[in-house]
Specification:
Strand order of the largest sheet: 1-2
Mean pLDDT: 83
Low-confidence stretches: none
Structural class: mainly alpha
Order of helices and strands: HHHHEE
Radius of gyration: 17 Å
Strand content: 5-15%
């Protein structure tokens, strides 16, 4: 039962965060809608191959998952090597 509830919770949270981002940034919603309209014609059923070809949708989902981590107890974000990003030095670890 715990396994099923945990799966539903993460799915609903991710859908909620996705909806929040689309409401906050309408230009992202417009760009996603344009991509969906471009790849999916009404006479065809949508399938895995059509969704897999939607690059902006994939980028959007990955970014939402990156920004709103639901599994913070399992994974932590740790820098694997020292680097400089936009002039800011980030140490390993």
């Amino acid at each position: 039962m715990l396994f099923l509830n945990a799966g539903f919770e993460t799915t609903s949270l991710n859908l909620g965060y996705s909806t929040y981002q689309l409401a906050k940034y309408p230009y992202i919603q417009k760009k996603l809608q344009e991509e969906i309209d471009q790849h999916w014609q009404e006479e065809k059923e949508i399938d895995y191959d059509i969704i897999n070809d939607m690059e902006y949708l994939d980028i959007f989902i990955r970014e939402v998952l990156r920004m709103h981590i639901n599994t913070h107890r399992v994974f932590n974000q740790e820098c694997s090597q020292s680097t400089i990003i936009c002039g800011h030095h980030i140490e390993k670890g």
